[in-house]
Write a structure and sequence with these properties.
The strands form 4 sheets. An 8-stranded parallel beta sheet has the order 3-16-15-10-9-8-7-4. Strands 5-6-14-11 form a 4-stranded antiparallel beta sheet, with no helix packed on it. Helix 3 packs parallel to helix 4. The chain is built from 9 helices and 16 strands. By secondary structure, the protein is an alpha/beta fold. It has one domain: Alpha-Beta Barrel (TIM Barrel). The structure holds ligand RRO. Ligand RRO binds next to loops.
Length: 315
């Protein structure tokens, strides 16, 4: 089966990626799996300056999935480039760098630092994370604000050279995800990643207090898969009907098995990220790819691309 995918003109040999934040910057998971064999390794979102993140505990397991309020913890873009991107470049990984910022111009400065770095040849795309749920007062969730989302993508686009795709990561916690998709595509995004985590709270019934110091956190794992499939379905549907410009969708949300990935592909995803599942099973991003290829072959297809969005077809 031809499993290769095209994201904004960049050809990847496999549709499988890590999900941002779930495999840090690659060193730990690379002890278990060869991350150079993935379609791409997606980094933890990086900001301009170092961030210590939210207070701990900032991760909680619930019967419905994992809740996190990491708060964009990270070393800042300069240290990221010199330590993490340098290492990813040295092993020959295809990297999608996830970028974040407090303001649109901060996003742009992070993008500029990466694309002008001496390791830029390792970067296959930028994933513009406008949907982190763990920002103080929720005022900076650009993905929930069409004007803010447009400005971030417009300023980042001015920094990215021709041939380097820019993919916007969207939140499920919006009234109309098709509207946000439309806005970021108009601003020049080459693709969309759907979805980020959905905001939740879990209460410790012994202490009768929230599990997380921040109280709210982003829910991930199998519980949000129908939400991801819904978001992909709505946006892919709008693309198929010509209501918004067509662009590749990177599907993410509760994928543990090949059948889960196939569900997202049939709804309209071109590529697949595996996040929470990799905490228990570091081989999950690889394994799901092998399972997906078998399922596609079993159904008589020769190319994964022929299955993308197939569930929308009339029967
Ligand atoms: O760091 C985080 O708290 C975080 C981010 Br940036 C994000 O995009 N999604 C998430 O669930 N957590």
């Amino acid at each position: 089966v031809d499993m290769s995918v095209d994201i904004g003109g960049v050809r990847l040999p496999s549709p499988m990626m890590t999900a941002s934040g779930c495999a840090a910057n690659g060193r730990e998971i690379h002890r278990f799996i060869d991350i150079t064999a993935l379609g791409a390794f997606v980094t933890k979102s990086v900001k301009l300056d170092p961030v210590s993140g939210r207070g701990t505990p900032r991760m909680a397991e619930t019967p419905s999935g994992m809740l996190n309020s990491i708060g964009l913890q990270g070393p800042g873009v300069r240290a990221f480039v010199e330590k993490d991107l340098a290492w990813l470049h040295s092993i020959g990984a295809r990297v999608i760098v996830s970028i974040a910022g407090n303001t649109a111009s901060e996003f742009a400065r992070v993008a500029r630092t990466i694309v002008r770095s001496r390791y830029a040849s390792a970067v296959a795309a930028l994933e513009v994370n406008i949907s982190c749920p763990n920002v103080a007062n929720r005022g900076l969730v650009f993905a929930c604000d069409p004007a803010g989302a447009h400005k971030v993508l417009t300023l980042v686009r001015e920094e990215v050279p021709r041939g380097l795709p820019m993919v916007a990561k969207l939140s499920p916690d919006v009234t109309d995800i098709v509207e946000i998709a439309d806005v970021v595509l108009r601003a020049g995004a080459h693709g969309l990643t759907m979805i980020n985590t959905t905001l939740g709270v879990a209460i410790d019934t012994d202490r009768l207090r929230p599990h997380l110091v921040a109280a709210t956190g982003g829910l991930s794992g199998p519980a949000i898969r129908p939400t991801a499939v819904r978001a992909i379905w709505q946006v892919a549907g709008a693309m198929r009907e010509g209501r918004i410009r067509a662009a590749p969708i990177v599907g993410v949300g509760g994928v543990r098995h090949g059948t889960d990935a196939l569900e997202l592909v049939a709804a309209g995803a071109t590529a697949i990220q595996v996040g929470t599942a990799a905490f228990n099973d570091p081989s999950a991003p690889h394994r799901v790819g092998v399972e997906l290829e078998q399922l596609v072959a079993d159904r008589g297809f020769e190319r994964l691309a022929d299955v993308v969005g197939i569930a929308h077809e009339r029967f």
